Amino acid sequence: MKDQFASYFEKPEFKETFARYEEMLQSGYTRYFEATELTEIAEYYAMYGDSKRAEEALDYALRLHPDNIDALIFKARARLINGQLSEAINIAACITDQSDREVMFLKAELALADMKHEQATEILRTLVETEGYAAGTYADIVDLLVDNKQIDMANDWLEEALTRHPDKQILIESAAFSYGQQERFDEAIAAYNKLLDIDPYSNLYWEELGKIHFLREEYDKAIDAFEFAIAINNDDKRYATYAAANSYYNIGNYERAEEYYQQVHECYPNTVDPLFHMGMCRVNSGDDEKALDYFTQALITVPEGSEEQAQIYSQLSLIFSRKGEHERALAYVDQALLICPENTELIIMKGHELLCQGFFDKSNEFFLEALTLKPEQGERTLFLIAVSMMENNRYEMSYNILRLLRDNPAIEADLLYPYLCLCEWVLHIGNLEETLAKSLTISPRKTYEIFNIPAAQGETAAEMIERLKLIDK
Question: What is the pTM for the complete model shown?
Answer without folding.
Answer: 0.79
